[in-house]
Amino acid sequence: MSQLSPCPAKIEINEVAPRDGLQIEARFVPTEDKIRWIDALSATGLRRIEATSFTSPKAIPNLRDAAEVVTGIQRREGVDLTVLVPNVKGTERALACQVDEINLVMSASNSHGLANLRMTPEQSLEQFVAILELTQGSGVFINASLSTTFGCPFEGEVPEARVLELIEQLIGLGIQGVTLCDTTGMANPSQVKRLCEAVLKRWPETPFTLHFHNTRGMGLANALAAWQAGISRFDSSLGGLGGCPFAPGASGNVCTEDLVHMFEAMGVDTGVDLDALLEVAATLPDLIGHDVPGQVVKAGKSTRRYAMP
What we know:
HMGL; Hydroxymethylglutaryl-CoA lyase; metal ion binding
């Protein structure tokens, strides 16, 4: 890579399938199976794994075993354990389990915030103040995920100025990292590159993560555009698991093994053992009871060669 290029030579993957992927599945994956699965993921070279969400069991029954999962998995050096928390109570539960990172969530649009969280962005920010007070001195990294950054399923376009205003408020509160989320797969590469360039220029010391859904088949293209702007951290989901209740029938998050395969083929270091990752991905249909959208696990790596017919 040219020294003048903003494209990072190395990227970091945050695996979100255990949380974002499992939360909308039709059936509950047994706790012991989740633990074995996360342990297998942590052995592939992934640097961060979002293991679960400390939310109400009534709200997300599939993650009702959050504490059991977090305390049951094997903690591996070099792999940060991340959890999503929706409120102060969830934060207290997460801290008791000694997690490495807490991921807060809010929306950039009023309507999505009210539909998904029952809070406006301003109300979410007020709640974050109490959470940050609770976590002060804990040593836990605090990240905030900003949903509908690239568009709202109810309102449509979310002005870039509004996104930048909310990021500024988050950083001003003391949030250490920010994830920009394409919640229902509305982003396009040009839009992604423009916004990523803007945030990196304005807050060069803040670690930004990009979270893409593959709802309209543009997940990898958007990740590539973000990388070209200088982004080096990405959320992704093994097998492409996940989705959004506000995009019925949509496929899930950008697929981890497909994302790793793309970057590694380009000579970008992901730190992930793709062969080991594909072995774990191959177990997904049995784990969740249905096929998954991931493509590389089915077609094989681009280096695969076939015998002449």
